[in-house]
From TrEMBL:
<dbReference type="InterPro" id="IPR033644">
    <property type="entry name" value="Ferrochelatase_C"/>
</dbReference>
<keyword id="KW-0350">Heme biosynthesis</keyword>
<keyword id="KW-0472">Membrane</keyword>
<keyword id="KW-0496">Mitochondrion</keyword>
<dbReference type="GO" id="GO:0004325">
    <property type="term" value="F:ferrochelatase activity"/>
</dbReference>
<keyword id="KW-0456">Lyase</keyword>
<comment type="similarity">
    <text>Belongs to the ferrochelatase family.</text>
</comment>
<comment type="pathway">
    <text>Porphyrin-containing compound metabolism; protoheme biosynthesis; protoheme from protoporphyrin-IX: step 1/1.</text>
</comment>
<dbReference type="GO" id="GO:0006783">
    <property type="term" value="P:heme biosynthetic process"/>
</dbReference>
<keyword id="KW-0408">Iron</keyword>
<dbReference type="InterPro" id="IPR001015">
    <property type="entry name" value="Ferrochelatase"/>
</dbReference>
<dbReference type="InterPro" id="IPR033659">
    <property type="entry name" value="Ferrochelatase_N"/>
</dbReference>
<keyword id="KW-0627">Porphyrin biosynthesis</keyword>
<protein>
    <recommendedName>
        <fullName>Ferrochelatase</fullName>
        <ecNumber>4.98.1.1</ecNumber>
    </recommendedName>
</protein>
<keyword id="KW-0999">Mitochondrion inner membrane</keyword>
<dbReference type="Pfam" id="PF00762">
    <property type="entry name" value="Ferrochelatase"/>
</dbReference>
<dbReference type="GO" id="GO:0005743">
    <property type="term" value="C:mitochondrial inner membrane"/>
</dbReference>
Amino acid sequence: MNALTLRLSAAKCACSFSTSSSASTKLGILMMNMGGPRTQNDVGQFLTNLFSDRDIIKLPMQSIAGQVIARRRVGKIKEQYMQIGGGSPIEKWTRAQGSGMVKQLDRTNPDTAPHSYYVGFRYTEPNTPQAVEDMIADGVDHVIAFTQYQQFSGSTTGSNLNELYRVQKRLDPESKLQWSFIDRWGTHPKLVSSFADRVEAQIAKLTDDVRHATPILFSAHSLPLNVVDRGDPYVAEVGGTVAYVVNELRRRGVNNPYRLVWQSAVGPLRWLGPQTEATIRHYGSIGYSSLVMVPIAFTSDHIETLFELDIEYGKVAREAGISQYMRAEALNDHPPFIDALATIVKEHIDAGFPTSPQLLLPDPGSESAQTITTRKWIAAQAASQAERKK
Ligand SMILES: C=CC1=C(C)c2cc3[nH]c(cc4nc(cc5[nH]c(cc1n2)c(C)c5CCC(=O)O)C(CCC(=O)O)=C4C)c(C)c3C=C
Ligand SMILES: [Fe+2]
Ligand SMILES: [Fe+2]
C-alpha cells in the first residue's frame, strides 16, 4: 500500500483512485521552470521580471534598478529572439513533455489516474499564481512540484520554490493543498541515457577522420562566482550529470575527450569559467577542426541553444577554422526523455512522495530570509508526507 492508498482507507472503494470517488486524492504535477517570452513584445516584461528577482540577482533599489537594466538590454535580447523565430519555444516543449508524461503515468499508475500537469513559469505566463489558481479550481489535493531544472540552483529551482511558497500562502491560506517536491534529478539513469542518445547521434554525423578525436563540450549556463562560493549546489550537480553521461557514452563505445564549459555570463560580475566561447576559439586556434556541443543544464531549446550555441558561437567556430561544429539536440520531445519524466514522477509516487534530503540542507554560505522560510514550509510538508506513510 502506498501513501495514497492509506489516505484512501476511509473511502468506500479503496481499489480505485478515480476522480469519480469523492474520497479520492487528486494529484497535480506542477512543472516549474523560468519560462520565456512568447513573442518579441513579451521580452521587456520577461527581463523586468527576471531582473526584479532577488534570488537571481541582488541589486540596490531592486525594483527601479531591475527595470532600468531590463530596459537597457531589451533591444539586444529582442534581436536575439527575432533570430530564433520571434519567441521562446519553452512553453511548446513543456506542454509536449507534460502531456506525454501524464499519458504514460495514466498507464503505469492507474491508481492515481487521471494525472494532470500544470505549467508554473517564474518570469512569464503561464506563471505560478495561474497554475495554483487552476489547481485549486480543478480540485487538486496534492501537488507534486516538479522542477524542470535537472540540477539544483538557488537561482533557478530555489527561486521557483520561493515564489511557490509566497503564492500558496496567498491563494491557499488554509493550506488545503498538500505538497511534495522533486527538486533535482541530474543523474537519473533515464535522463543520462537520453543525453547519451543525443550526443551519440551527433558523433555519428562526424566524418570518419575526426569521429573519435572530436572534443565533446558540455556547456551549461554559468554562475557568478559569489554564488558558487556560497555553496550553491548547481556547479557540482552539473559536473555529476556530465560524469554519468560520459560513463554511459563509454559504455556505448564513445571514448571522445570532453570538457565542461560555461556560457551566458552577463554583466560586470565575475562568473565561473572556462567560458564556452573562449574554449571554442582556443580549440580552433590549436588546430581542432570539429566540436560537438552539448547543452547539459536545460532540457528544452531556448535562446542559449538556438541563438547562443548555434548562431553566435557557430560564427565564432567558423572564424576559428572549426568546419564541423555540431550541437547535440536538446531533449525536447525525445521519447526516452518523456519516459524519463514519467518514470521520475512514478518513482516519487510509488515511494510515498519523499523529499530529497538535499533540499532541506542549507547552503554553507549566507541565505535570504525568504529561502529559510521556504525551507521551513518544505520541511513541514515533508514531515506530513512522512506521517501519512506510516
Ligand atoms: C540552469 C540554467 C540557468 C542558471 C543556473 C541560471 C542562473 C543565472 N542566470 C542569470 C542571469 C540571466 N539569465 C538569463 C537568461 C537565461 N538564463 C537561463 C538559465 C539559467 N540561468 C536561460 C535558459 C535563459 C534564457 C531564457 C530563454 O528564454 O531562452 C538572463 C536574461 C538574458 C540576458 O539579459 O542576457 C539573465 C540576465 C544569473 C545572474 C544567474 C545566477 C545567479
Ligand atoms: Fe540565467
Ligand atoms: Fe545569453
